[in-house]
Write a structure and sequence with these properties.
Cyclophilin, membrane, peptidyl-prolyl cis-trans isomerase activity, about 250 residues, two-stranded antiparallel ribbon, about 20% strand, alpha+beta, globular
Length: about 250
């Protein structure tokens, strides 16, 4: 009798243990699925690079870790050697008005490689200059893929190069526009038509060249101001529509 009671107690204990183990296994599966969903909704929503994906995985594997995002270029970015040690001269024609330009690959090889390649591909032909600022900062910004200032997430690169330490960008400067990250340069650039001071605490903007003649054409565009409905009365779409007829570099 006592042996029967002992066997019955043992079976009950084993059944309870199996139930508990099953609950734990289900719970672990739910957590794993949850982490996978998080991974898809966060990392994959922005088409991560292999390094970014690895960083996310590391974070899931080690909850206490805080991996820093790895800077990387996105898209078919020209090699800096295309322009390294070279200087290119050419013409940027806006609304039929030619601006003589020089791009310096000795100071900004990555930027000049990108823009020399884009110019050779006639990327800028027919593109609009979408932004004008007329107070404090005096620039005409051009080169977005959609002609309206939209970023192209499939073509982003860095790092920034040749940034003025004091943040002063003299009239005639040609610099690369970007978003918040120093690896968010793209196809957009701006021409400074009057001495301007830009913030350097966020990394600054790559100076890749200068206008050597014809800058008065940009000043004339700026004199007409911006359209109503812009960011402000001094920052928005140029009141005079500006089209890039051509951008050639040799």
């Amino acid at each position: 009798m006592r042996q029967m009671e002992a066997r019955r107690s043992l079976r009950n204990a084993q059944q309870q243990r199996r139930k508990r183990d099953n609950v734990l296994a289900i719970g672990a599966g739910v957590v794993a699925v949850g982490l996978a969903v998080v991974l898809q909704l966060t990392a994959f929503a922005s088409n991560p690079t292999p390094d970014e994906y690895a960083a996310v995985q590391a974070g899931l594997a080690s909850p206490s870790a805080s991996p820093s995002p790895t800077a990387s270029n996105v898209g078919n970015i020209p090699n800096p050697d295309v322009a390294r040690g070279k200087t290119f001269t050419g013409t940027l024609t806006l609304n039929g008005k030619p601006l003589g330009v020089t791009l310096d690959g000795t100071k900004a090889p990555q930027a000049v490689s990108v823009f020399k390649t884009l110019a050779d591909q006639n990327f800028f032909k027919g593109n609009n200059c979408h932004r004008l600022t007329t107070s404090g900062i005096f620039v005409l910004q051009c080169g977005s893929k959609d002609g309206k200032g939209g970023a192209d997430p499939a073509f982003q690169w860095g790092p920034v190069e040749n940034v003025p330490a004091n943040g002063v960008y003299p009239a005639g400067t040609i610099a690369v526009a970007r978003a918040a990250s120093t690896y968010s340069n793209g196809t957009q650039f701006f021409v400074v038509y009057k001495d301007s001071k830009l913030p350097v605490d966020t990394g600054g903007y790559t100076v890749m060249g200068k206008v050597t003649s014809g800058l008065d054409a940009v000043s004339a565009i700026a004199a007409t101001g911006v359209t109503s409905g812009g960011t402000s009365a001094t920052d928005g779409q140029p009141a005079t529509k500006v089209t890039i007829d051509s951008f050639t570099l040799k």
